[in-house]
Amino acid sequence: MSEDPRENAARYRTQKWVREQGISGERERESESTESTPETAESAPETCAATPTASDRAAFVEVAIQQAIRRGDFDDLPGAGKPLDLGRPNDPDWWIRRKIESERLTGLGPPAIMLRVEDLELEDRLDAMGSEQDVREPLEDFNRRVRHARMQLLGGPPVVTALRDVDAEVGRWRERRAARAEASARAASAPPRRRRWWRRR
Predict the structure, then answer these.
(1) Between these two residues, 108 and 67, which has the higher pLDDT value?
(2) 137-184 confidence digits (pLDDT tens)
(3) Which of 4, 26, 122, 129 minimizes the number of CB atoms within 10 Å of its CB?
(4) Cβ atoms of residues 50 and 4 within 8 Å
């Protein structure tokens, strides 16, 4: 396997820096054991010049990362091979929302985050209800809690969850319910698939 020239250059710079640090350490020990002279004062800028620059440190870190990749230290990490879940764009509280979702926390967190999570799951809750009155009550309660959270001055992230139009949501609930009923009726009226009398082996 061919070696990476960048890795060789970074290794050379690192070894050179280590050698210079060793030489400068010996010079410092000699200067502490003897009295200070103009010669030791002149050698001080050389020790300062031996400190690594930002590019040297970056190259050293890059070499360490590449070596860890080749050793397989980053294999089988959680989420490997899966797309990045960046959440909604312009969401400053994405990390809180993701933590609540991953840990399945309920009843914890600031009202702004809890209302966002509830807003995402509201349609699924409504679809499980059987009557229009049962749909209207949670929608009105949701809107009341959103208004109450907007009026609070307790700090935390701002409440940006939109209010739900109750009549429009009830109409959408009716449409989803009719579509489900039609799909189930189609599935029930479809003729069963006939099994072949022979099977391919």
Answers:
(1) 67
(2) 999 999 999 998 888 776 677 888 889 999 999 999 999 989 988 888
(3) 26
(4) no
Sort 28 into a burial class: Cβ within 10 Å, 0-12 / 13-18 / 19+: middle
Q: What are phi and psi of 118, to 5 degrees?
A: -65, -35
Here the tokens at position 107 are 């009843």
As a whole number of angstroms, the distance between CA 1 and CA 169 comes to 63
Alpha carbon distance, N-terminus to C-terminus of the chain: 47
- Condensed to tens digits (0 to 9), the pLDDT of residues 83-129 reads 776 656 666 767 777 777 777 766 667 788 788 888 888 888 888 88
Amino acid letter for position 135: V
Burial label for 20, CB within 10 Å (0-12, 13-18, 19+), is: middle
Sequence letter at residue 160: V
Residue found under tokens 């870190």: 61
What whole-number distance in Å separates Cα of residue 137 and Cα of residue 143?
10
